[in-house]
Amino acid sequence: MQSTQTRTPPRTPYVASRLPQVGTTIFTVMSALAQQHDAVNLGQGFPDFDCDPALLDAVDAAMRSGLNQYPPMTGVPALRDAVAAKVGALYGHAYDPGTEITITAGATQAIITAILAIVHPGDEVIVLDPCYDSYEPNIHLAGGVAVHVPLTPGSFAPDFAKIAAAITPRTRALIINTPHNPSATVWSAAHMRRLAELLRPTDVLLIADEVYEHMVFDGEQHQSVSRWPELAQRSFVVSSFGKTYHVTGWKIGYVAAPASLMAEFRKVHQFNVFTVNTPMQHGLAKFMADPAHHLSLPAFYQRKRDLFRAGLAKTRLRLLPSQGSYFQCVDYSAVSDLSEEAFCRWITAEVGVAAIPLSAFYQGGFEQRFARFCFAKKDETLNLALGRLARL
Ligand SMILES: Cc1ncc(COP(=O)(O)O)c(C=O)c1O
């Protein structure tokens, strides 16, 4: 037998990056900085408290009763039924759990799968800046072109004239997100009506990222796309059990769409994850049977929002509205004229509270002197942070 040994060490072949612009995200950078400085991490968006023990019990019971093998590709029927019942009760749209709902590995996988299912090379997808950081690379991976349209500076309201101007014969889809990360604003019924009018003469599809659907405050209603039959007919509606039930690490969510769109979605889904872990699906189905578990969420988070805002109001940070989600943005221009990233590094290192610069959510950055805090934290964590921020 011939020796394959050579003098030169083995070499990993060069690969041209599919995502050359993508580096370490600001979330990773700020979390590392928070750890290094022992700062209270109000940067990354996840709870520091645990989920309801009844949910853990339901998953444990599913595991112990042997529900540990592959579930159906589309998700456990009981969970798809529970999602259909919830969406029907809250928004009045009757999705068929057999053909119109699929359980996904978090909203993240739902979004990339929807994009891969509908975007052909060269297609354009409109995203509204500031936006969640996965949309743009997802569109690139599908060979599409992300067309960035800014939300109105200051109010973060959709600018329909600008969206209309961005629509071309190549526009395949528009991605919207309400309640909105990072601004914590929500779309109104009037916005949804205007959106329906705008899209009516087009074949533009909609991806509605509604992961914070159960966190809308001050008695307002979440304007799910599924409330609007005309919009629902052209939409993938995406949500996240991780956000709703305080289990972001479980990475489980769902997508609802009309059957013809869902058929295309499932063609991709079956070859990127095939399906999602079984016992969590059974546990969630059982837990969701009590609607109080999601209906209590607005009051739960509104109390934390109010506690956090009351503390921040004593500082020179100017509070932006927080209508939904678990984020609170501030204008720090009375405190500092540093750039947003420099300011967030500074409060992390010097004040001991980590935040995220809003510029990170804009293509190419956009400086407004705004920073985002996450208040999905124990009261003691929020009070600790407020104690430190009090000197601002
Ligand atoms: C707007 C938005 N969409 C999607 C996601 C991802 O959700 P999941 O953890 O279910 O993948 C997040 C998480 O932060 C988000 O803020």
Could you characterize what this model shows?
It is a single chain. The chain is α/β, with parallel strands linked by helices and 392 residues long. Helix content is 39%, strand content 14%. The chain has 15 helices and 13 strands. Strand 3 (124-129), helix 5 and strand 4 (145-150) form a beta-alpha-beta unit. The longest helix has 16 residues, at 297-312. The chain is globular and about 55 Å long. The mean pLDDT is 96. The site of pyridoxal-5'-phosphate (PLP) has 14 residues, from helix 4. The site of pyridoxal-5'-phosphate has 14 residues, from helix 4.
List keywords for this structure.
392 residues, alpha/beta, seven-stranded mixed sheet, four-stranded antiparallel sheet, 15 helices, 13 strands, 39% helix, 14% strand, binds pyridoxal-5'-phosphate
Rounded average pLDDT: 96
Order of the strands making up the biggest sheet: 2-8-7-6-5-3-4
Tally of helical segments: 15
Overall outline: globular
Bound molecules: pyridoxal-5'-phosphate
Unreliable spans are none
Quote the distance from N terminus to C terminus: 74 Å
SSE topology sketch:
Elements: H1 26-36, E1 40-41, H2 53-64, H3 77-91, E2 101-104, H4 106-118, E3 124-129, H5 135-141, E4 145-150, H6 160-166, E5 171-177, H7 189-199, E6 205-209, H8 229-232, E7 235-240, H9 241-244, E8 253-256, H10 259-272, H11 278-288, H12 292-295, H13 297-312, E9 318-319, E10 327-331, H14 340-351, E11 353-354, E12 356-357, E13 370-374, H15 379-389
Bound molecules: pyridoxal-5'-phosphate.
